Amino acid sequence: MFEILNQEGHARLGRLVCQRGVIRTPAFMPVGTYGSVKSMLPDEIKSLGADIILTNAYHMYERPGLSLIKGQGGMHPFIGWDGPILMDSGGYQVFSLDGLNTITEEGVKFKSPINGSEIFLSPEISINFQVDCGIDIIMIFDECPPYGCNKAYLESSTDLSIRWAQRSFHTFQNRNSDHAKIFGIIQGGEYPDLRLKSLEALLEMNFDGLAIGGLAVGEPEELRMKIINGLNPYLPPGKPRYLMGVGTPSDLLNSIAQGIDMFDCVIPTRHARTGQLFTNHGPINIRNSQYKNSNQPIDEKCRCLTCQKFSLSYLHHLDKCKEILGLRLNTIHNLYFYLNLMETAREQLRVNNFQQFKQEFLANYML
């Protein structure tokens, strides 16, 4: 299922085989929360180099709902994507919709921010929904606690996520879904003992892969790397490792160096819609007046359609006029930048030059 092709230090070059395709790792997964990577066609996403996309169980469960998705033949034909899909279980919404939910042993009651109706998710409901949608990589249902919780709360939360992991795994086994894989999620906040407790419990269940959750929720980067470094010696080498919700280009490279294989983040697409564009020298804001008269591309080294055909001044103009084309061109560039960064990382790992590449990239990348 998962093969490590080469390793340089902790950094790994690999391939994760799914029924609908091979995921080359390290891999970045564009985020399509509602079944759509905003402003992008599925074929465009694939042409940019994506092997897999991510969607979200809570939001797809709320709208359009299982009956419609199943009636369309499952998630893949419904959204027009024939490659692998990973689905976030809805556990992140326990964090992001704080104040609109109630957590119990059984599951989570959400008050819909759309119409105020009640939505209930449990490990069983989330896993069954993902299986019924035909998802390739299924995530367990967990609680994603906010950064800054006291240890007593995190102890209780970690234990709850372990119990929910057991219920998630049991439900998945009962469904006998041969084509799908299921990943466990390591929780425990900033406490090494709770992280290891969570990991040890997940290892007993023998998940197909392991994710590190509860990060990208407000913690400083140094703490995030400390947590990853602390887990590294205890993670089984033969399983893919997924760092959830992270992050910036520097986050990705630093995490790859610590053995992470898979990433997702809304940054490239969300920031594209607010005018932030990524370059090899750091991000720029196309809304700044300095780009009004520039006939240069976003990045002279970039081979994306946007950089090959359009100038900074044109993108600045589109943004000022709030033209939809501007959002699309920005998104094409940012996704290409992220996916090309992963392709370059893979190539450098192939020739045992990743560490030098990382150092040179970060030395020139100004935040």
Describe the structure in brief:
By secondary structure, the chain is an alpha/beta fold.
Count of extended strands: 16
CATH domain topology of the largest domain: TIM Barrel
On the 0 to 100 scale, the average pLDDT is 97
Largest sheet: 8 strands, parallel
Total separate domains: 2
Q: What gap, in angstroms, lies between the N and C termini?
A: 37 Å
Order of strands, widest sheet: 4-14-13-12-11-10-6-5
The helix/strand class is: alpha/beta
Low-confidence stretches: none
Quickly count the helices: 15
CATH architecture tag of the largest domain: Alpha-Beta Barrel
Question: Rg, please?
Answer: 20 Å
Strand content: 15-25%
Q: Estimate the helix proportion, in percent.
A: 40-55%
Quaternary structure annotation: single chain
Shape: globular
CATH superfamily of the largest domain: Queuine tRNA-ribosyltransferase-like
Name of the CATH class of the largest domain = Alpha Beta
